[in-house]
Each structure stands twice: as structure tokens, then as C-alpha cells.
């Protein structure tokens, strides 16, 4: 009898035995047959309009019985669901993949945002989760107002204990977002350093540390610390007591981090400003494949010294120190710096407002570089540098003969001739971003429309002086990309175009054509500006 099964007892996370599962499958099959027969009776009664005339079944009784059968079938579906019978190894792999895309914030901001949610499903899931060490290795220490940092340290230690004694660990200390630091900030960070960094140093593979200067000094100079498994590090000096200028200098200590962490290949330095001087033995430069600086200006000569050792670099972001003197110019490298594996290069120049500073700084910086395989090049300045030596940039690109996909230049003045020359020099570009302050002449747009220039171009940000030519260019490239007439010139379809234009206001016919392109999926932003 099917009536002796309670659907509420079946719709749980309990795992039935193999024998119980076979019985449930038989009863579910019987319930499906009863449901099919009942549906046929109800349909026949409705067709003959004699519902309720049968003595053994009223309409209300039939529908109540049907609801019971549907509920029973669904409950059995839950009871014998395939995921309940997955091997523990496969479940462990699924859990790891589900939580591997993001770290665990401690304390967890929500009930479902950490692997603890798996422990609240059922006994089996809890057992599998607690025996999956990969779930407990990646932690973000939430250093925030209204959170007790010492309790958070206890929680992190408990978390790391779950992953056993040998698994590689990852730790990030979140950034304090308030303007004023707590009065015990240095003391708290010192305890964090001792309990969470020094205690697990041998097991870290990834670190994101935001510490006061004193703790950074200890981190870099303590001979008893070794990080044999560390491969990625983000080191950020927080702004605590930022108005003081005691600094970490080369003469103060002999940094031994390069020997203590020999496997580091990925490094970011953040907010060191002029506090940190860089020397050849500071980090393991020879192994780096990714190096990024944020708010960390470095002198030209020191950048050259670093790059000469970073032959394996694939991704590099640099802050060029604008404070330059005659000695700095003389100490800049005169020999060629070859970076054969570099794919992405971002260069940020500091304030270039002093007359002649751009020529003194940019030329000596770019002259020795050779980047034959770079695919993305980003160059920007903190101010709109009008004296930027444009020929030095063209020389770098011509010398390297690189097939660049993305070129983005921001807050640096470029003449029409330079913009045209970039389009001619870099035929492989898929994205050209020179800013809406810089004009791409009509003659170049016409060549682009024909596919003679930039056949792979999909994104363009610039200023134009002929709106009709630009719209024709977009239409021609869209049509040619969809039905190429010549297999020798395959044009890429336009994707995103941000164009400021000078001249007359867009007319209705032009607006309709632009909207037609937008309806085809092309993102177009246009803005009329003064001449």
C-alpha cells in the first residue's frame, strides 16, 4: 500500500539504504501508474460531463487523491535523488569547485557565504566538508569596525586547523576603510603578524598583507622567517601615521626576503610612495612573471635595474617616479633591456607639470626597452602631460615590431599626426583608446572603413572631425564582417565605439542609422563637443 508512506518523512536529507531505495523506486512506479489511471478517469468524467455521478469517486475526492499521489512522487524523488548517493570523493571535488572561485571572509558576512553552509545540510555533507581540507585553506581576515580582531584570529586559526598540517594556505588582511585607525592598530597588527603570518609561514602560497611600516620591516628583515612555498605576494603599507616619514631604507637593514621566499613569481607593491627604495637583492626578481606597483613610484634607474633581471616577466605595471635630477638621467640604462615574454605593460607617470620634465623622464625611460611580444600597452599620467615626447613612444613601438592588440593612452597629449602614425604602425590593434580629447583624422577613418587600416579593430575611443565618415565606417565594417566579400581581408565587427565629434548636430537620418547599429549589438556612445 502506498498510503503508509509519509511524504514529509521522505523529503529530508537522510540517505536510504540500497534496499530501501529499491522499495521506494517500486512504490514510485506504482504511484505513477495510479496517477496516470486517475488522470484518465478525471479526463473521461470531464469529457462526458458526468463528474461526481460515479458512486466510488466524487470530483473533490479524486483531486485530493491526485494531490496526495503527486506529493508522494515528488517526495520519493527527493529521497532517491542521485546526489545523495555520490561517492564522498566526488562530493568533495564538487564542494571544492563550488567554493574555489572566491576566498572565505572571516567572520563570514552571511550564512551561505562560507563552507560552513555545507555543514548545515545533513550529517553526510558535514562529514565530507570537514574532511575536505581544500575548503579551509583560503581566508580573508576581516579587519573592520565592530569586529573583535582577536576573536577573528581565533577563528582563522580554527579554520586553518581544519585543513590539516600540510596543505598550502592563503591569507589576505582586508583594508581598513575608515579614515582614522583604532588606537591599538599597531599592537593588533603585531599580534596578527606573530599568530597568523609567522606561525604559518612555511605553508603560505599566497599572501595579501596590509600592515604598518614596522610590521613590514619585520616581515622583510626577520631571518627566522622562511616562506619556501610562497609564490604570490601583495604587500601594502597601510596609511597608519601616514604623516610621519620614518622609512625603510637599504642602509637600515640587509633584506633577506629574496632568500627566504625563493619561489615568488607574482608580486604587487602598494602605497609605498617614496618610503621604499628598491635594490637588486630586495626581491627574487629573476623568477617574477608578474610585477605590479600601485602608488609606489620608483626611479627610472631602479626600474631599469629591476627589468634587466626580470627576463621572465609576462605582466608588468610600473609607477615612474617624476622626481628626477641629473644624476638619475645619467644612471638610466643605456643598454637594451629585452623582455621577450612580456604580454602586458602598464606605465603610470607621476606629475609631469614642470617644463621639460617629460622630455627628461620619458625618453631615457623608454629608450632601452625592447618588448617584441607585448599584447597590451597602457600609458597614463597623473596630469594631462602636453610635453610628452611622442616620438619616443613611436620609436619604442617601431623598434619592438610588436603585434599589439590593445593600446590605451590616457591624460597624455597626442597630436593628430601621432594618432595617425599609431594607426599605421600597429595594424594588429583590436582596441585603440587615445581618449576623446585626441583627434583621429577623417582620412584615417576612411582607410579604417575600407579595411586598409586596423582590420581587426573592435573598440575605438577618440575624437572625430567628420560624423558621417565615422557612421559609414561603422556600417561598412559591420556589413563586411558579416558577409566578407574578399577572403583576403577579414574585418572584425565593431563592438564598442566612444566618439566625441565636432561639427554639426547629428541629423535624424544619421541617428536612425546609429540606432540600427545599436540594435545589432554595437555599443556606440557619441557626444558633440565644441570645435
TrEMBL record:
**What InterPro entries does the entry give?**
LRR_dom_sf
Alphabetical list of SUPFAM superfamilies matching this protein:
RNI-like (SSF52047)
Q: Which domain of life is it from?
A: Eukaryota
What is this protein's name?
Answer: Uncharacterized protein
Amino acid at each position: 500500500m502506498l498510503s503508509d508512506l509519509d511524504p514529509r518523512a521522505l523529503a529530508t536529507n537522510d540517505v536510504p539504504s540500497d534496499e530501501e531505495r529499491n522499495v521506494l523506486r517500486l512504490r514510485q512506479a506504482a504511484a505513477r501508474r495510479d496517477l496516470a489511471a486517475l488522470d484518465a478517469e478525471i479526463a473521461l468524467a470531464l469529457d462526458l460531463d458526468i463528474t461526481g455521478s460515479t458512486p466510488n469517486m466524487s470530483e473533490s475526492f479524486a483531486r485530493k487523491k491526485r494531490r496526495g499521489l503527486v506529493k508522494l512522487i515528488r517526495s520519493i524523488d527527493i529521497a532517491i535523488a542521485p546526489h545523495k548517493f555520490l561517492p564522498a570523493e566526488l562530493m568533495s571535488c564538487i564542494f571544492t569547485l563550488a567554493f574555489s572561485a572566491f576566498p572565505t571572509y572571516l567572520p563570514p558576512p552571511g550564512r551561505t557565504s562560507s563552507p560552513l553552509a555545507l555543514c548545515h545540510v545533513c550529517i553526510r555533507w558535514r562529514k565530507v566538508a570537514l574532511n575536505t581540507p581544500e575548503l579551509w585553506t583560503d581566508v580573508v581576515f576581516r579587519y573592520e569596525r565592530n569586529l573583535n580582531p582577536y576573536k577573528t584570529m581565533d577563528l582563522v586559526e580554527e579554520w586553518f586547523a581544519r585543513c590539516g598540517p600540510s596543505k598550502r594556505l592563503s591569507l589576505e588582511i582586508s583594508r581598513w576603510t575608515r579614515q582614522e585607525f583604532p588606537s591599538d592598530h599597531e599592537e593588533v597588527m603585531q599580534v596578527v603578524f606573530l599568530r597568523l603570518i609567522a606561525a604559518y609561514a612555511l605553508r603560505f602560497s599566497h599572501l595579501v598583507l596590509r600592515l604598518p611600516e614596522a610590521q613590514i620591516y619585520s616581515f622583510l628583515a626577520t631571518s627566522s622567517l622562511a616562506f619556501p612555498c610562497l609564490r604570490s605576494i601583495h604587500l601594502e603599507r597601510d596609511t597608519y601615521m601616514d604623516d610621519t616619514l620614518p622609512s625603510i631604507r637599504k642602509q637600515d637593514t640587509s633584506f633577506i626576503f629574496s632568500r627566504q621566499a625563493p619561489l615568488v613569481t607574482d608580486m604587487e607593491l602598494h602605497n609605498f610612495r617614496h618610503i621604499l627604495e628598491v635594490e637588486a637583492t630586495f626581491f627574487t626578481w629573476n623568477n617574477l612573471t608578474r610585477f605590479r606597483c600601485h602608488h609606489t613610484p620608483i626611479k627610472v634607474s631602479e626600474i631599469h635595474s629591476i627589468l634587466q633581471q626580470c627576463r621572465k616577466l609576462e605582466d608588468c605595471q610600473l609607477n615612474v617616479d617624476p622626481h628626477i635630477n641629473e644624476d638619475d638621467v645619467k644612471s638610466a640604462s643605456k643598454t637594451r633591456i629585452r623582455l621577450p615574454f612580456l604580454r602586458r605593460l602598464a606605465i603610470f607617470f607621476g606629475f609631469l607639470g614642470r617644463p621639460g620634465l617629460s622630455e627628461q623622464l620619458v625618453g631615457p625611460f623608454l629608450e632601452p626597452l625592447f618588448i617584441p611580444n607585448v599584447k597590451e600597452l597602457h600609458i597614463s599620467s597623473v596630469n594631462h602631460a602636453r610635453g610628452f615626447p611622442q616620438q619616443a613612444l613611436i620609436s619604442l613601438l617601431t623598434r619592438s615590431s610588436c603585434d599589439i592588440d590593445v593600446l590605451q593612452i590616457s591624460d597624455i597629449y597626442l597630436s593628430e599626426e601621432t594618432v595617425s602614425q599609431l594607426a599605421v604602425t600597429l595594424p594588429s590593434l583590436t582596441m585603440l583608446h587615445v581618449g576623446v580629447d585626441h583627434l583621429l583624422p577623417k582620412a584615417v577613418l576612411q582607410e579604417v572603413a575600407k579595411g586598409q587600416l586596423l582590420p581587426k579593430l573592435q573598440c575605438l575611443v577618440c575624437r572625430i572631425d567628420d560624423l558621417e565618415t565615422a557612421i559609414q565606417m561603422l556600417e561598412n565594417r559591420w556589413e563586411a564582417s558579416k558577409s566578407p566579400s574578399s577572403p583576403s581581408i577579414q574585418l572584425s565587427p565593431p563592438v564598442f565605439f566612444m566618439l566625441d565629434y565636432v561639427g554639426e548636430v547629428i541629423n535624424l537620418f544619421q541617428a536612425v542609422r546609429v540606432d540600427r547599429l545599436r540594435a545589432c549589438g554595437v555599443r556606440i556612445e557619441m557626444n558633440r563637443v565644441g570645435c
